[in-house]
Amino acid sequence: MQQERLLKVLVIGDLGVGKTSIIKRYVHRVFSQHYRATIGVDFALKVLNWDHKTVVRLQLWDIAGQERYGNMTRVYYREAVGALVVFDMTRLSTFQAVLKWKRDLDSKVTLSNGRPVPAVLLANKCDQHQHGLCPKLPKLENFSQGQGFVGWFETSAKDDTNIDSAVTCLLKAVMSAE
Ligand code: GTP
Ligand code: MG
Known about the structure:
Blueprint: E1 3-12, H1 19-28, E2 41-51, E3 54-63, H2 73-77, E4 82-88, H3 92-108, E5 119-124, H4 140-146, E6 151-154, H5 163-175
Parallel strand pairs: 1-3, 1-4, 4-5, 5-6
Antiparallel strand pairs: 2-3
């Protein structure tokens, strides 16, 4: 018999880092250069055949970057079981905000066993090598481990780089967390 799991996953990070683009790429396989800021929260659903006996209904919560300054995140984060924390490789301030997003997350939601929800770090817009911050960034391997991320990826929603890998990495952690 097949079992179905509904998983609520958050996509968080500063304004314009590419959260909506990552979700659109992952769910609809499209990309647009056009920027329209998300207001509040948006949703997307993807149904996955996880293994021969499990169907995953993945509910992606696309939280507007500007919500970090609001007071709704506690409501939005409720019952989430995982998070993608995104920054823009070409803007240092968005990397510095990663820790604020991670702390916000950990302070407002935990798994039912009290442990932090698994989170994966995404260094997005890696197609923009020439503008990349790489020399200025700490080694992401050490940084992500030190900050409690279960993994990290350089991603591009534009070129479709590592988007599926990042989600799969998160889902593996989520599925083995309980
Ligand atoms: P908010 O909704 O304001 O929080 O922003 P967001 O994080 O949802 O960003 P969004 O996905 O709207 O992308 C912002 C801009 O960056 C858009 O113009 C996108 O086309 C562009 N963008 C997103 N991902 C990539 C990427 O991987 N590479 C490049 N070159 N541009 C990207
Ligand atoms: Mg958005």
